[in-house]
Amino acid sequence: MNMGSYNCCLPNKQEFERIKALSSLLKLVAEESRLKLLCVLRQGRHCVCEIAEHFEMSQSLISHHLADLKEAGLVKDEPKGRRVYYSLTKKGQKVSDLIFNL
Prior knowledge:
alpha+beta
């Protein structure tokens, strides 16, 4: 077997950084509540209060998970008056498509 064709296995700092980032992303979305949030946001934008109606968790915990997803670049927020609406970014859509189309 020629290991030269397996770039991700060679000691390449740039490739290892990509693997590290992918590992972090997979850990983030592996949490059940975050997966559920991605599933809900695939249907369109929602505020935390709308999401909370369908989840058995507090609005503050939902907000915490959304903040984690936002930090990873999967979710964006849009303030409208007293509410903040969340939706998937292009990256978030790609990740959710990949996950939910397995």
